[in-house]
Amino acid sequence: MTEHVLIEADGGSRGNPGPAGYGAVVKDAATGEVLAERKAYVGIATNNVAEYSGLIAGLAAAAELGASTVDVRMDSKLVVEQMSGRWKVKHPSMQPLNAEAKELASRFSRVRYEWIPRAENSHADGLANEAMDAGRDGGKLPEAPKAVKQDRISPVGWTGATETPTKLLLVRHGQTAMSVERRYSGRGDVPLTEHGKQQAAAAAKRLGAMEGLVVDGEAVPIIASPLIRTQQTAQAIADALGGRVETHPGLIETDFGDWEGLTFKEAMDRDPEFHTEWLSDTSIAAPGGESFDGVHRRVRKARDELIARYGGRTLVLVSHVTPIKALLRMGLDAGPSLLFRLHLDLASLSIVEFYPDGNASVRLVNDISHLS
Fold this sequence. Notes:
Layout: E1 4-13, E2 18-28, E3 34-45, H1 47-64, E4 69-74, H2 77-83, H3 95-105, E5 110-115, H4 122-137, E6 166-172, H5 177-180, H6 194-208, E7 214-215, E8 218-219, E9 222-224, H7 228-241, E10 245-247, H8 264-270, H9 272-280, H10 292-310, E11 314-319, H11 321-332, H12 338-341, E12 349-354, E13 360-367
Parallel strand pairs: 1-4, 4-5, 6-11, 9-10, 9-11
Antiparallel strand pairs: 1-2, 2-3, 6-12, 7-8, 12-13
């Protein structure tokens, strides 16, 4: 067992994001003897994701060797400064990686980080390029180190996504009197109807039967819009899972302004030309209200905040039709026309996953099988 080791780690991406790989080498700090090498292709990712992956692999290998003190040398200024605590980890995609690296580093009595020029990191750089070449050529890819969970490092199918995603279970609220009459229902705070409560209970039963929503006796986070219809729906889910409801204002429905409470026809009759223009341009706000582009920006900010707080976990989000469509649109990387072409039923379930490297996967859309 070598107590003091040196880790040299590197990662690269040909395209940033593009085909990416990492390399890490662990050496005896006293003699320079190579004790372990790690390399792996990580799919389509950014340079920063690849660099962090190399660090994680190196720390895992050092732990396997029984090291107690570690010196890390990397040519990534960002990783070195963030791991040293001198730079904040602001980007949501970096926060889960930084947390995983810090968890591994906590297993040693001391870890010291040093930035070095790329020319002094040639061994790890060579391993990273070998991994990228293997991925490009379709050859057998090196396995990730044992201490790093395979589902956090292997590419996911054809998407090329890497690392553990933040999984969002998107539940639309149940029926209200406004939805029965098909009226614009934005910020108006209307409760569920009796049928809406039954729909919420059915959705709650569905989620209560799903695996992975209660971990070690604790329910996953359940986060809802502040309006009563979403709060009631979320509370039914919380009761089924044994959790509690949190509120995030970013998940609130569109502000329809002067059209609040009107039917489509009534709004068209009131403002015929403007209503037609509004339907064709998502940058236009309803009179006294909010544009769909504004909603999209607001929901994106809310998503980023939630990922920053709960990155890599499963979340239940109880919201409204437009914010849920916005999240699905982000997952699909689709344009604003999706808002008008996608139908979401009351109390429906949709699922989207967002990966730290920028990839996403929409797994389910508008499932209402629990209502039948």
